[in-house]
Amino acid sequence: MQKEEIDIQNALALAERFTMAGRRALVTGGSVSIGREIVRVFAEAGADVAVHFARDADVAFGQPDAAAEAVREILGKGRRGVAIDADFARAGEAARCVQAAIEALGGVDVLVVCASIQYRTPFLDLPAEQIERQIQINFKATIELLQAALPGMKDSGWGRVLTIGSINQTRPESDLAVYAALKSAQHNLSFNLAKDYAPYGVTINNLSPGLVVTERNRWRREDAAKWAEIQEGSAPMQRAGEAREMAGAALLLCSDAGSFITGADLQATGGRHLGWQ
Q1: Angstrom distance (rounded) from CA 236 to CA 218
Q2: What is the pLDDT of residues 121-166, one digit of tens each?
Q3: Can you tell me the distance from the alpha carbon of 80 to that of 43, in angstroms, rounded to the nearest whole number?
Q4: What pLDDT is recorded for position 15?
Q5: pLDDT band at 2 (very low <50, low <70, confident <90, very high)
Q6: Choice among 10-14, 78-82, 206-210, 260-264 with the minimum mean pLDDT
Q7: Hey, what CATH class is 18-274 in?
Q8: How far is it, in rounded angstroms, from Cα 134 to Cα 140?
Q9: Among 102, 111, 106, 96, which residue's Cα sits nearest to residue 28?
Q10: 157: phi > 0 → left, psi -120 to 50 → alpha, else beta; which?
Q11: Domain ranges of the chain
Q12: For residues 249 and 1, which has the higher predicted lDDT (pLDDT)?
């Protein structure tokens, strides 16, 4: 056998370990940044993907066509894709989002809870409106998503749930107190549910990114010198992570490769969680 043939066989065997072929995934906040990269890698791994987005948020990021572009990319990889616009600030929208994904794809085997918001506001200055909006989008919507998606996974005997947390769960910033508290609550929720659903072939894990280059922090990169300083002090690796690096971790936890991992909190922080500075 020629070396080229062996290399191809090895590549195919490796891909099989991380396959998502035939799986149907819903990625919330899937039109930009970390969510978008997760959508991309899931489609590359063989999954059909429903891309949740909030139109107003994408417009605010200057990317009004991001969800449509994500779907075109999924289709270009030979998979089914659909965009679902839902404002999680409104009660019931998260549950409707899951139902729309089920109707479009025939079911939801994989759920990634990536959509969230944050306000960098000193705690004592936080207005009630910002507090309530964060509670609704960052936690209540997660409950809706899980309640809508888990029954189908349990019935089918296979499922993957991945909540996207934050380094702020354990290394909070004073101006992100409510955001950090809600990320901690989301992690606790996933941790509690993991034990209940493990007997049914459903894994539930949390992924906690550190500083990552995203649309949300684009304003911090406008001053190149300041951004370099922020990166240097952010973690032992002394750099920000890339969204694609978070997507690789998500693929591990949501593919066949992660079949024996549940109730875990994967710290993708460049070492920040180790107590850097």
Answers
A1: 22
A2: 999 999 999 999 999 999 999 999 999 999 999 999 999 999 999 9
A3: 9
A4: 80
A5: confident
A6: 10-14
A7: alpha beta
A8: 9
A9: 111
A10: left
A11: 18-274
A12: 249
Residue with tokens 């349990």: 154
Query: pTM here?
Result: 0.95
Residue 221: Cβ-neighbour burial (10 angstroms; 0-12, 13-18, 19+) = middle
Tokens of 145: 């998503």
Pairing, β 265-268 against β 202-209: parallel
Amino acid at site 104: A
